[in-house]
Amino acid sequence: MSTIPKTQRAIVVEKTGGPEVLEYRTDHPVPEPKAGEVLVKNTVAGINYIDTYFRTGLYPSPKPEVLGREAVGTIVALGPDTEKFDFKVGDRVIWISNHGYAEYTAVLADKTIKLPDGIPAEDATASFLSGLTVLSLAKETYEVKKGDWVLLHAAAGGAGFLMTQLLKHLGAHVIGTAGGPEKVKLVKELGADHVIDYRSEEGKNWQKIVMDITGGKGVDVVYDSVGKDTWEGSLAVVKKKGMVVWFGNSSGPVPPLPLNLLSPKCVKVARPQLFGYISTREELQAYSDELFGLLLSGTLKVLVHKLYPLESIQEAHVDLESRKTMGKLLIKL
Ligand code: NDP
């Protein structure tokens, strides 16, 4: 059995700011698991756009902070009051919580799930937070039905890559947007019916293109994680009685909007967050089981943009925020 060191490698953010505030440390204390927690030795951690919000302060959080909301690893110690979870030292698990940019994380057993043998660590991390998100968006926020017309922004991204596949699996007609020819090619290969390069000269007019594709009706639902740059267009291309789901701020937040903008078309809007849909253990386990099933059956494929060493975390955040990446960014620990 491996001994647990007193200190570890971790990325610490002392104050909000750009990627330069991500400090690589080699002497960060290894936490003791408290009541209800397990200590996980992480092998692969996920990098998500939300990490940039905590880094910049768009989403306030106490500092100093170790960012990172998910990882795969092995349980190396059990805190008090964890008996009911049926975990043991050596279990291979995946968790969703906080402080994943580190070799060891003390995480609530409640937010930790046993990982089925057939799913490699990289596939699991590349699809966990992102995959649970897209499942909840397509099942609960708006229940996607066969034949629905769906507009999905940033369709080549970590969440978008999985969402495109899920939407096709559910039988929707998918219009994806993506920045640049390489991303467009990828989203087409995933089966999207139409893909618009919204950064190209022609694609800047994506609203007209969407209306033309749908015969002037508009789409049943828009999934918009881009926010500031796209929210108006998303409202413009949703059909009468349709829904716009704003679930991210990649270009900045959607500004407060007058509710009467929704009246002419009786549009519904939603601003969901994953952690609302998986707040209980039962919800987390049920969504995880569904995701694992989709991975094991080959229905959902993952794409890893790059595995970054922990010390290259600044480079990873620069890449993510400069729209250079396709699929998911991971940290190899
Ligand atoms: P992505 O891999 O999708 O990266 C963000 C993408 O957004 C970029 O690649 C880029 O794609 C697009 N983008 C558009 N405008 C900008 C801009 N100005 N700056 C940077 N990127 C831009 O990240 P994730 O998969 O981690 O997350 C996707 C989105 O989903 C994020 O907004 C995130 O906050 C949200 N999210 C929300 C959750 C929730 O619970 N509500 C949970 C998980 C994710 P392109 O070049 O194609 O435009």
UniProtKB/TrEMBL annotation:
<dbReference type="Pfam" id="PF00107">
    <property type="entry name" value="ADH_zinc_N"/>
</dbReference>
<keyword id="KW-0560">Oxidoreductase</keyword>
<feature type="domain" description="Enoyl reductase (ER)">
    <location>
        <begin position="17"/>
        <end position="331"/>
    </location>
</feature>
<dbReference type="GO" id="GO:0003960">
    <property type="term" value="F:quinone reductase (NADPH) activity"/>
</dbReference>
<dbReference type="GO" id="GO:0008270">
    <property type="term" value="F:zinc ion binding"/>
</dbReference>
<keyword id="KW-0521">NADP</keyword>
<dbReference type="InterPro" id="IPR047618">
    <property type="entry name" value="QOR-like"/>
</dbReference>
<dbReference type="Pfam" id="PF08240">
    <property type="entry name" value="ADH_N"/>
</dbReference>
<dbReference type="GO" id="GO:0070402">
    <property type="term" value="F:NADPH binding"/>
</dbReference>
<dbReference type="InterPro" id="IPR036291">
    <property type="entry name" value="NAD(P)-bd_dom_sf"/>
</dbReference>
<dbReference type="GO" id="GO:0005829">
    <property type="term" value="C:cytosol"/>
</dbReference>
<dbReference type="InterPro" id="IPR011032">
    <property type="entry name" value="GroES-like_sf"/>
</dbReference>
<dbReference type="InterPro" id="IPR002364">
    <property type="entry name" value="Quin_OxRdtase/zeta-crystal_CS"/>
</dbReference>
<dbReference type="InterPro" id="IPR020843">
    <property type="entry name" value="ER"/>
</dbReference>
<dbReference type="InterPro" id="IPR013149">
    <property type="entry name" value="ADH-like_C"/>
</dbReference>
<protein>
    <recommendedName>
        <fullName>Probable quinone oxidoreductase</fullName>
    </recommendedName>
</protein>
<dbReference type="InterPro" id="IPR013154">
    <property type="entry name" value="ADH-like_N"/>
</dbReference>
<dbReference type="GO" id="GO:0035925">
    <property type="term" value="F:mRNA 3'-UTR AU-rich region binding"/>
</dbReference>
